[in-house]
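We give the entry.
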Amino acid sequence: MENKSKKLVIITGYFQDESYGLLGPQMAATIINDHSEYQARVVAITNEYDKNDLKKALNTFFGDSPVVVGFSTLGGRTDLFDFAKALKNDGVITFLAGPQAGVDFKGEVGCEKYGHRFKGLSDCFSFAIQGPGQQMLPLLKAGFHSDISRFDGVLVKNEKGHIIEKPSIAWDDEYLAKVDWQNIYRLQKNGFEPFNVDCAQVIAQIGCPHASKDREVIIEYPQILKPKEDLEQKKPSARIHQKGCSFCDVAADKGFKGAVSEDAIKQQLACLPEHPDGTKIAFELINESPLPKLAGIFKLADDISIQLSQVNLTMRADYFLKGLDKLEAALKIAQEKNVRILLASIGFESFEDTILHNLNKGVTRQMNLDTIRAIRDLKPKFPYHFGYLKEEGANHGFIHPTPWDSPKISQQINRTIAMYQLAMDILPNHSTPLIIHHASGLGDWIRQIEIKEDIVFERIGTTIAWWQTEDKTLV
């Protein structure tokens, strides 16, 4: 791979002082390295990077080769959008990939009519590609100076300024079976330096089952637009049709595509790096409803004679309650094999029913509390092989502030936190403010309110600032 003359870098957002793997970018790079003439490298960029250092590192890596830079999993970082645009203006081929690549390239719904809406990133990137990573292969073979608009999953702006989009292909287990976890680099003063990841991912399910349920949701207006007096009686609202949680843009992006084959999962397990003792490093099992098949992961590992060390689970509270018996059965196996199961993140999000309804979580405050009680009851049974605590590496979902935080709601949440001692073991050290991506269900909610009330909410990159209305009327 290192001898290939054609090169490609995939830049992705990252957090300082972390060492986790990135499934999407690293799997895409693996596909490109294994099936094309290109050498692809993943570069993780923190918020603290220096643009000049990044440019120097890119120049050193590419040398005399044409510069091709992809961007994926950016988390709405406008600094990386600006960097991509500067590269494109210098003649570099830049492309946007990963979740929401298509909608972010095209821009917010109605942006051509309403000037304040997010205009999209087509000026920052030569093209975007949405969906499975193998769609890059025919494009790389044909070359970037060909008519790339004909390739699956590609979005590109034509000479008239119109965006041409071709639908993506279906997910294929053949390309979901291998990940090179060593192929990830950090930016340092002297260039790109590799580092070893201590937690990887294994994808067992694409999308979320909750995202398969289409329903009409009535969402209250944000608190800043409610009348000062008589708050509890007058509650204006807007209606949206939503699949999945109303704040989740990934649900709109992927929906629910179903399970990955056992053969592909086994190959992913085999790809995991090893500790010095021969056990595989910890990994997050990408499956929003993992408990029914959790015990089967141990069997798949046995089939290929590997020893696991830790399985991290990210899931919903209602799916936890439904699969509690399955989890206990899997924990008994984990205890026998000396493997740790960590509830890395339960998406509680709130402990107040109004907010949970507006988020379209599909759970109630009581379901969340029942889940916490069940988790706490389970811990003494498997003290060494079951984890859920903050100090054990868990970071459970708690969204605050939200647009609906009234004094009464805040009082109710604080009472619940105190009554059930949630700060002791459940709540993260820092809550996550509600982020409204322009393509999420709450993006539709905001746009309805803007039109009905003739107001404008500020846009910050791909995000709608629900807490800030601008002092101008809708045009």
